[in-house]
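Final report, closing paragraph on structural work. Over the funding period we assembled a curated collection of sequence-structure pairs, and we close with a single example.
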Amino acid sequence: MSENCTHDCSTCGENCGERQQPESLREPCHPLAHVGKVIAVVSGKGGVGKSMVTAMLAVLMQRRGFNVGVLDADVTGPSMPKAFHVTERPHGDDDGIIPVKTKTGIQMISCNLLLEKDTDPVLWRGPIIAGMVKQFWTEVVWQDVDYLFVDMPPGTGDVPLTVFQTLPVDAAVVVTSPQSLVGMIVEKAVNMAKMMNIPVAALVENFSYFTCPKCGEVVRPFGESRVQALAQELNIPLTASLPIDPKLAAACDAGMIELFDGPWLDQLAETLEKL
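Its predicted structure, as stored:
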């Protein structure tokens, strides 16, 4: 052992006899499950439309012929069941927990599907919430899923850390809004992903603009978009912009997100297909 040993082999350049590889915290999925690519959809703060982006990406990949799953990791603010109008409770047997399916066959697991009432609050401490998210990965029998989208809670707390450490996340998609203040928050989320060796595939700016229904003029209520400059600054290869569109909001509220129509995330879907 070197006299300068810090007992942290991950940051040490010495080649001593007691050198150890850092222990992996990855957990295998259920023995009967099969999951291909895992995509985490994250945001630095709440209210930027992260769950809607998750739902839209899941729908787009399903339309491309892939088997898709959605793991709702936002335990205290779950919105996936409402966006897809899923009310069926998942059932379990000796083999594990079977996810429910949406109208088009997207597999889903969410804490809200386990509650007696979907308006009941989840009053749990962070470690318990993180433990449930881990169970959604290890105890759910995901059935030949090509793409599993993880709708993350906002921020860089217990659950995002658990997902990044436990699941074999292939890429992250970061969702933001146009305000300049959010740029600093986005950088925190991007830096967390980079620290966990998770590549960031795209930066999606929600509420970017709206089109006047009378004259067709494009209006940017929050000022000029900063998404391109921010992506370049953070070395993120792809950007996308979502409009303020009452039809999208209505589709989510009515549980009909599977019927949405728009090209905004098509390029991102192509990128995910090539992973």
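The chain has eight helices and twelve strands. The longest helix spans residues 180-195. We thank the funder for supporting this effort.
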